[in-house]
Amino acid sequence: MKVTYNWLKSYTDFDLTPEELADSLTMLGLEVESLQPVSWDFDGIIIGKVTQKFVHENEERLSVCEVDIGSKTLNIVCGAPNVEVGQKVPVAIEGTRLPNGTVIKHTKIRGVDSQGMICSEAELGISSRSDGIMVLDDKVEFGQKLRDALEDGDSVIDIDVTPNRPDCFGIIGIARDISALSRSTLKKPALDFSENGRSISDLIKINILNPEKCPRYAARFVGDVEVKPSPWWLVQKLEAIGIRSINNIVDVTNYVMMETGQPLHAFDYALIRGQEINVKTAAKGEKFTTLDDVTHTLNSECLMICDREDAVAIGGVMGGLNSEVSDSTKNILLEAAYFDPVNIRRTSKLIGCSTEASRRFERGVDPNGTLFALDRAAQLIAEVSGGKIATGCIDVYPTPIRPKMVELRSERVKHLLGVAVPSAEIKSILGRLGFKVSGEEIFQVEVPTFRPDVTREVDLIEEVARLFGYDNIPADTTALIEQAVSKSTHEQCTTKITSTLISFGFSETVTYNLISKKEAEVFSSNRPTAQVINPLSEDLSNLRPSLIPGLLKTVQWNINRQNSNLKLFEIGSVFRKTGKNIEERTSIAGILTGYSVENAWNIKARNSDIYDLKGYVQELLARMGILNWYFDTHTSDFTNKQSISVKKNNDLLGFLGEVKTVVLEQFGIEQPLFAFNFDLEKLATGQLQRAFSPVPKFPPIKRDVAIVVDEKMPAQSLLDEIKEKGGEFLKNTKVFDIFQGESIGAEKKSLAFNLTFYSLERTLTEEEVESQMKQILEALEAKFSAKLRS
User: Fold this and answer.
1) Distance in angstroms (rounded) separating the CA atoms of residues 478 and 76
2) What is the pLDDT of residues 121-148, one digit of tens each?
3) Which domains occur in the chain, in start order?
4) What is the pTM of this model?
């Protein structure tokens, strides 16, 4: 559950920084997984005012606009259909680099000067909407930077809400806990709207045929709406927490769902046949196409929202394509309901469709919060669409769900917590959390319906402990037992890889598990990709088959900020579709780009290359204690011919290589980049426990030998043979020179090896070493037709 700091603060006053708020939420049992600043990349974007608009003399689909940016007026050619005189718009001036990497230049478009660009939301990186320019609120002043005009300094708080706290799947529920902790007032949004025209009872009839699966169903009618892009304040709030903007109607339903925790749905009223809604179960085998254009096969337990002729939504999961709100919609029917959590969970699992709505319904929304959310959404829709709310609402609630009563004893609180909490404080804590409390030492507590998790006395004691503060409860140190915790092989491997790569100068990154379909196909090695059924955006529609796309995005982000010398790595999950199943494995990937050595007074800069990366990989495998591995040739969809596989016992551990230019261009990267990718689970099973090795007391004997072989002969094959024939005293072997030239013949190469011999028990003789060297040379000649270079 994501929420922004400022959005949360609009419902309650508290004097906490974002970091302090995150700590407080965690202590309240709402664990904060991450805290990130909201930052819009708006450098070089100025607010301008369109003062003149003309049709382009050479292209009637283009407009030539005069835009006042305060310091001067710019002539800008614009192709957006919605640009009009008087609008306040974001203008990218000459020299500005947009989030997608585009640099704005003074240019001619079809023969007319264009001194900048009027930007769309997509070009600013705000949302995926690119069908027109972004039009700002008329109240903003032109001539100032866009960053200064828009809300800044906000933070996104990602909270891991446990299933037993459905109230905290709405921002007001989280705000209630914070207001209780800070002893401030919870400020729910005020409902202030007028009803116009016909009564809703003349417009729609609602029947619940399965009240056990749908205890409550309510609806409002909003007419004469204009479906259009949402205002900036609404887009900003949704995009900041990862919800893509669609249009003003759908955005309001999503906004109110995130605000209250109550999912809502808007139907195009013109597509509701018979002006009738019937809530009933589907027929076995019935098929229904949802908003994502997927057809599902249902069973007789699936709850459906139907008009007089057919289904228009799967209750609590997703609406139907046949009643979708579109640009031509004029009247909408707004739905809010309470569905049986168990039934929604079964339906969602049956059809393989988990949505923001179903995740809330299956945990249990507040059955008595339905009307507030419905009225709130109707009010906002009227505000952003110019619509008129019909008189009254329909609320079918045959058997109201009442609050439960639970008894709480103050002595039991003391017994379980080990500290005496004053009765007045117990009543105050529970009251601030929305409970109604009566009595003194033995309390009768009315549990609000938005807290279905509180059913026993011990649950109330937990609420007291959360607000009283776990830090204020004394620890019983006599109960502590020292335990030795051992890490699994997988954890040891992860720790070792991380510390080793950091020692090499790499920086660790963490990227999203979700990427776009296009990116997934490039990195899937022609295997089927795992697609998300109901993605929040097209850029997050597939589970990643590789860590490299995320690393490339990180590289692009850094290069756009003048940081082009990078060594990055990530350890995380990757996913592969095998039949109907999705296999999850842990992978380790890294990239190297830019200078490996930068300019200094005594040294020239040198670009990173495949050999730098190869050296890092070799040392990583050595430090992990992985033996008997070897390099081999490798091909992949995203690396060029300089690609090398790493194998052991003919099993692929991973690969490294230079990423193809065509792939880098998709990410806006214009410099060479090298990457490696390994299956961490294979590395974990292949590593050895490191044993103590004494420092040799006796001097080593070193030999250099140059061997002439076919130019296509891998050096690794020769190294393997040398190690095998070198005997127990050969401790180290490495290639130190490669030579090709007329003196050794065409299609030949010379490889020079340095060999180190020593014994831990005595000094070796020259004769012993020469005997081993003879065996090595004879073996190389017999197996590879190798000749000693004279």
Assistant:
1) 76
2) 888 877 767 788 988 888 889 999 887 7
3) 2-38+153-182 (3.30.56.10), 45-149 (2.40.50.140), 195-396 (3.50.40.10), 404-470 (3.30.56.10), 489-686 (3.30.930.10), 701-788 (3.30.70.380)
4) 0.58
